[in-house]
Amino acid sequence: MKENTLLTKLRNGETAINGWLSSASSFTAEAMGLVGFDCVTVDLQHGLIGIDTALPLFQALSIGNTIPIARPMWNDPAQIMRLLDSGAYGIISPLISTVDDAATLVSACLYPPRGTRSYGPARAIMYAGAENYYPEVDNQILKFAMIETLAGLDNLDKILQVEGLDGVYIGPNDLSLAMGYMPKTEPTDKEVLDMVQHICDRAHAHGKFAGMHGTSGVSAAGSAKKGFNFVTAGNDIGLLSAACKSAVAAVRQS
Amino acid sequence: MKENTLLTKLRNGETAINGWLSSASSFTAEAMGLVGFDCVTVDLQHGLIGIDTALPLFQALSIGNTIPIARPMWNDPAQIMRLLDSGAYGIISPLISTVDDAATLVSACLYPPRGTRSYGPARAIMYAGAENYYPEVDNQILKFAMIETLAGLDNLDKILQVEGLDGVYIGPNDLSLAMGYMPKTEPTDKEVLDMVQHICDRAHAHGKFAGMHGTSGVSAAGSAKKGFNFVTAGNDIGLLSAACKSAVAAVRQS
Amino acid sequence: MKENTLLTKLRNGETAINGWLSSASSFTAEAMGLVGFDCVTVDLQHGLIGIDTALPLFQALSIGNTIPIARPMWNDPAQIMRLLDSGAYGIISPLISTVDDAATLVSACLYPPRGTRSYGPARAIMYAGAENYYPEVDNQILKFAMIETLAGLDNLDKILQVEGLDGVYIGPNDLSLAMGYMPKTEPTDKEVLDMVQHICDRAHAHGKFAGMHGTSGVSAAGSAKKGFNFVTAGNDIGLLSAACKSAVAAVRQS
Amino acid sequence: MKENTLLTKLRNGETAINGWLSSASSFTAEAMGLVGFDCVTVDLQHGLIGIDTALPLFQALSIGNTIPIARPMWNDPAQIMRLLDSGAYGIISPLISTVDDAATLVSACLYPPRGTRSYGPARAIMYAGAENYYPEVDNQILKFAMIETLAGLDNLDKILQVEGLDGVYIGPNDLSLAMGYMPKTEPTDKEVLDMVQHICDRAHAHGKFAGMHGTSGVSAAGSAKKGFNFVTAGNDIGLLSAACKSAVAAVRQS
Amino acid sequence: MKENTLLTKLRNGETAINGWLSSASSFTAEAMGLVGFDCVTVDLQHGLIGIDTALPLFQALSIGNTIPIARPMWNDPAQIMRLLDSGAYGIISPLISTVDDAATLVSACLYPPRGTRSYGPARAIMYAGAENYYPEVDNQILKFAMIETLAGLDNLDKILQVEGLDGVYIGPNDLSLAMGYMPKTEPTDKEVLDMVQHICDRAHAHGKFAGMHGTSGVSAAGSAKKGFNFVTAGNDIGLLSAACKSAVAAVRQS
Amino acid sequence: MKENTLLTKLRNGETAINGWLSSASSFTAEAMGLVGFDCVTVDLQHGLIGIDTALPLFQALSIGNTIPIARPMWNDPAQIMRLLDSGAYGIISPLISTVDDAATLVSACLYPPRGTRSYGPARAIMYAGAENYYPEVDNQILKFAMIETLAGLDNLDKILQVEGLDGVYIGPNDLSLAMGYMPKTEPTDKEVLDMVQHICDRAHAHGKFAGMHGTSGVSAAGSAKKGFNFVTAGNDIGLLSAACKSAVAAVRQS
Ligand SMILES: [Mg+2]
Ligand SMILES: [Mg+2]
Ligand SMILES: [Mg+2]
Ligand SMILES: [Mg+2]
Ligand SMILES: [Mg+2]
Ligand SMILES: [Mg+2]
């Protein structure tokens, strides 16, 4: 089957750059697949994308060399399995608070006997190739648990020991809220920033990858410097809105 | 009916800043309607948008204060009328080469006895308000003829004298090709640049508005300085792709 | 092939009641197919429906016993043929002003040697049945020319003599505008009302059917009394909006 | 952030009139937003609307002054949060049977520390405005628990005491079934009618709002007279079907 | 209400032939409804179909005489109820492992007092007819539990005794995986084949129907010979891909 | 830019096998792109596909190695240009009857100075690569004129001399009708069969390619033997329906 170059890169110790897709436009998806991101995340939680509109996005992302991954609406095995059947090569699951949550995520991504994924990779074998899809795919799906709740912080070390989990991904808005601060995609409160670094370090201590959300290349570069292996450099609507506002300002101020 | 603030601005001698929408995402459209553009153009010619996907875009653009306008796939009265029925408050029609082309455009935008628009403003009166829609709307629709062919250049002065036409809009790629140069959205060839200025000046000489396509705020600011009344500061896919590439580069180079 | 019960009814001298669909919802279409209309018109001119969203509407209308017909965006053979391929059993073509316009409509609805329809009834034979589709279908498609322009009025008798045309359909808004009055879906100006009756009478004098647009059952009943064979009793958005306003008023006034 | 005028009205002791949307047409949604309803409910339970088709409906409802609310497919925090992210300003959650059910609903609508809503108001801040969105939004979302099961009746008083719940909404079909009667959207059985009044009175006794489903303005006016603060005056498909049937009958009987 | 001819056939001891739909095309659905299948299953688990794209499929399947059934994404009452509201006349629920799972499925398909289905058959009464819909529908919905996990095998006899369950349906890929073999839609391992026959026999011993998945007419005929009452003869994408490959080979080898 | 391997194959004297897509499903499109066809034609004339649903089909076809081409709804430059902008690498234009028709087709496919294509290859440069897109693309687009009318037969030799036209493609249904026979996708009338061979021979005499429509691999193999360079081996709905009917029959007859 087709190699998950994102996992290869991470396993080789390289930093992966992630783009974030929150609108259900296959034209936008194809464009984001061609700009150099190592992977693009189709966001079904806070992005305005559902199971039905996600399909053409995965297809559009398959045209280039980027790796399509997904954030499900919830840590829901049914939806995770469908995203994998649709061609996602990785899952970033939100609001993982307990070992059970993390185990559910991992199990949904692996076929028996390792997990409980139901077999029916309708489009996945079109994308990945049917040859050796099973059992090789079990080694090719990235599994990230989002750490962004108080319980998730409490259980961080236990979550990081769940077998099969590849790493954790920080959602800074929810993390800030959980810690009693205003929600900020780019945290500035010292306690939150310290926690971000702490999570990154604990992930590494357990031999796992650490991923960090972000709104720009500058932010992602900063996260990379902190040691994060997987850094998000903004989402489509955010980057476009910022670019438009700059463009308007450039004319108004001229 | 609701005022066409874009026309008001142009009639007041102010420069209008236009955003360009080429993807069929209502989320993207709503975002572009909120960033400060005076108007946003839904592009059915080279954008990947058709009559069916255009409807939610006009609706999304109606939420904010920007003015929704459209470029039809062709200088086709049937499609122009449908775009107006869908709530477009302006039409930028491509490849206008003759007086007849321009007259066709104007006629399609006006009800009898001034023109030939067929009556049935299904969504337009939801957007504009039913009160006085007819006959007031005949004074509220912006009509721009694109000048971008050799014949269009030859007939420029005659086109600019077509009654009811509000102005001309330059398509720099086609203009460059027509003049024997490589297609460039941001022309650099002197002969083309001179022609761009010439078109702008002739429009003003005839008391009409001049519009110029562009890929960025810098480009649009430059056009405004040349005297253009209506300047496009980039399209969604172009601005997003550029922003993504910058973001990726920021991480890779850090 | 499946009988066009609408044509049968008209040929038997009965009055047919038409519903009008202007929104692209297959749920709405199915509902309108079940309320007792003899036929429902999918409106691609002023309705917010295009070729892509029309397909599920024709499918939904096929579930009940109503006959699906269509108004194309323009008197355009390509779109007329596609609507027939999609399962429309009748065409109401807008803005027919000349004998040539009417002949174009008729020709687009008939296969050679009678006309120029291109063969490829992809879904039509699913709806109609493949058996004897050709050549029987040539006798099963209703063809109505809309009379609503000054030229159409001038050429009325000649249009009514075009072989193969089944009748004329009046668009009261455009007719009013053409005659110098305010656009009204329910005309009240005597000259317009007289013209409506005149068109109806001329159609009958030529042995053709007469159809009249309308916004309600009362309006359609009135048209039936004037002798119209085909009467439209309102469109989805208009009927729904009126029903909602009545419902709101009922509560506010209680 | 933009005021929730529906909540303001309810808090001021006025009766709110609700429209109900069960078809996934943004044109229908925009029309229903302009007829005078205080709010319109996008129904993802029994309406034929899902997460993907709901987005343009919320956008269309945002054009007018009505307040968009939603009924999720289930009392599911993931879907409730996505509806809020999409711009819903209220949630009517079905089949609330226990205090836990009600607490789950409330928690899903509030950010930490009050609740568990995950932060990512992608479109919500476009609709509501980003300024003070957090924490003000926690006071701006209407939360209605549907009372329509035997357990819900048993636990009514306890449910009404759940902090943060704004009120209850009666689903008359399920309520009738639960009480051993035929399902009726407009109940006629005395025991059911008494229960309807009882639920309304208990809500008021606990200082909460009472909402009642209904099929027409007459029905909604009746509910308002019984003391309900929030009355539904019919859904799109029901109102349209009734209007069509009346129109057809008007012609047939003429 | 409209008879469920599939259930009638099964109850009469006849073998039912099932087609499987995994793409969200209403044109494909209509075609599959016309080729002679007794029923067609809309697959929301491994098919690339969701709640939003399922609606036009059910409508398209309603045109012919086939019976539309559905496989939900999960054994989820909310989605099962919505599929029934959309017009499904049967449910094949995946991964049923326990008596509780089976009871949940049955309960979701029956109205109180027999079950917990929520009342709101929006489109179902358009398809089935409103007359006597309740309570007759409780006897007209096919309920199949998929047996494909180790726990499901362990609990087979207990599952088969769940009141209201009509039968079991075998998912051969998951069954093979569960039993320690490679996933195969057409099993060849003796132990798996024996288990398939065993499940069929146990169903019959309990007076329930047995259904078997398959990829072709040959496979389905083989299952019928083994005694299965309900046999699947392939899915759209699989049958089409095979037909295309054969066609290409026919040309290449000529 | 990316090579048009279909043109390369034809120019090398090899026979190309074409698949035909008439349903608007991107899943079906991706499947058809992976079965071995040299190219797949997205049919906007008799297929139920329009400009809006065509986009994800082109994207899905871009995933594999097949070459995406298109048949427009009409020999309409506006639509042809949009199909090229969407990523089509070839155009099969229907009902070409005159030299002017053929010249219009060729002109729409070529940029100035060779033709009149308007510049804006929005998605085309994503598919093809931006490097050297202009002017190389002018040599990479396949242009086939459909010969299927009496006038087309009369003007065959003149059409074949139009510079830039790559060849002709026979529509057997329309050709049969034009010649006074029943429409047949697989002609059996000697006069029609002779004409098919004649068209093929005349194309070769003019150094142009000859393409033939067909319903199966057997048919396409037969056309290849007759000398056709481009042979269609069936469309999605036809191949699937035939496969389903065979599967049903296999069970019924067992
Ligand atoms: Mg989060
Ligand atoms: Mg241009
Ligand atoms: Mg009209
Ligand atoms: Mg209920
Ligand atoms: Mg399974
Ligand atoms: Mg043809």
Describe this structure in words.
Six copies of one chain form a homohexamer. Chain A has helices at 5-11, 26-32, 51-61, 77-85, 99-109, 124-128, 133-136, 150-154, 156-160, 172-178, 190-205, 217-226, 236-252; strands at 16-21, 39-43, 67-71, 90-93, 142-147, 167-170, 209-212, 230-235. By secondary structure, chain A is an alpha/beta fold. Chain A has one domain: TIM Barrel (Alpha-Beta Barrel), CATH 3.20.20.60. Chain A has an eight-stranded parallel sheet. In chain A, strand 7 (209-212), helix 12 and strand 8 (230-235) form a beta-alpha-beta unit. In chain A, 70% of the residues are buried. Chain A binds chain E through residues 50-52, 55, 77-79, 82, 85-86, 111-113, 118-123, 134, and chain E through 22, 24, 45-53, 73-74, 76, 94-95, 148, 171, 173-174, 177-178, 180, 182-183, 237. One magnesium ion (MG) sits between chains A (94, 148, 171, 173-174) and D (118-120).
